[in-house]
Design brief:
This protein has 296 residues and is of the alpha/beta class. 37% of the residues lie in helices and 17% in strands.
Length: 296
């Protein structure tokens, strides 16, 4: 089977589901309705009332993925068995197609409410891989880890971000949620080649893609805010991904400065345009696709 014809948990172009959109989406009369939706399970676990009923109605009719916020897969504290149990119940109850988390940590004697970088060391690879395997066993399914943006390397670095990511994926035997905006942002902040980074990613590990906008704090400091439109350079990196790996389900993230839903759907439609460009085209070599501007 070619990379362009792989079976994925979801297909097409997706959008993060926000409670403020529920009533508007319920009519399903909007142009460019998403092929799938994504939610953070932490925002819905234990919720009752109208919102819970609306979510149930949506998950019964549409494909859903989950992107977690507080698993803290790289953290020092033991994994929370109660939380993992709640996540499994939620995934099972709503027939969630894919569960992903950030390759980072969020706890240290309590929740830190931020995604912090893991030291790029062999010990950290072993630590994360063991925890991923524990999570997959409890949840009864494979998970995907997202490559995250970071702004300062943790002390004691022994390997590059890329080598660390590849080592974790291999040792943990899990999938990758590929965030192309994070590749671009990190390439600016840490002066590496975004194209070369992407070309080294094993295509067979990619379960889904995220694409988003960011904030340009300075020429050498971009912040992954999910609060702006996707820029041309990131669209080009998405094109390069499709050219090399085939068409992969892709979700538009927007968490701040959120425009009206029709405007979000119009931006999400650009994903479909890029996907259609490669739907009938065979996956190309690692050097294919448009070039992406990068620092360094």
């Amino acid at each position: 089977m070619s990379l362009g014809m792989r079976d994925f948990a979801v297909q097409g172009a997706g959008l993060g589901l926000r409670r403020s959109f529920l009533d508007e989406l319920a009519s399903e009369n909007l142009a460019g309705f998403p092929d799938f939706f994504e939610v953070a399970p932490e925002n819905w676990i234990g919720m009752g009332g109208r919102y819970a009923r609306q979510l149930r109605a949506f998950t019964e009719k549409h494909a859903f993925t989950c992107h977690g916020l507080s698993l803290s897969i790289g953290g020092p504290l033991p994994l929370d068995p109660v939380f993992l149990g709640d996540v499994r119940k939620f995934l099972d109850a709503h027939q969630i197609r894919l569960y992903s988390e950030h390759l980072s940590y969020t706890t240290d004697d309590g929740h830190l409410y931020d995604l912090l970088p893991i030291p790029f060391t062999e010990a950290a690879v072993n630590h994360v891989a063991a925890r991923v395997q524990q999570v997959q066993e409890v949840l009864g399914r494979r998970i995907a880890l997202e490559n995250v943006s970071y702004y300062a390397a943790a002390p004691g670095q022994e390997m590059s971000e890329l080598d660390f990511l590849l080592a974790v994926l291999k040792k943990a035997d899990c999938d990758l949620l590929l965030d192309v905006n994070n590749i671009y942002v990190n390439s600016i902040n840490h002066a590496y080649d975004a194209n070369a980074f992407l070309d080294a990613i094993p295509a067979e590990r990619i379960a889904c893609i995220h694409i988003a906008g960011h904030y340009e704090e300075a020429p050498d400091l971009y912040v992954d805010t999910h609060g702006a439109d996707v820029i041309p350079e990131v669209w080009a990196l998405l094109d390069r991904t499709y050219a090399r790996c085939g068409v992969i389900p892709t979700l538009l993230e927007r968490d701040f400065n959120i425009p009206p839903l029709p405007e979000l759907l119009a931006e999400m439609a650009h994903i479909r345009t890029h996907q259609q460009r490669w739907t009938k085209a065979p996956a190309m070599s690692a050097g294919a696709g448009k070039g992406v501007r990068h620092a360094g």
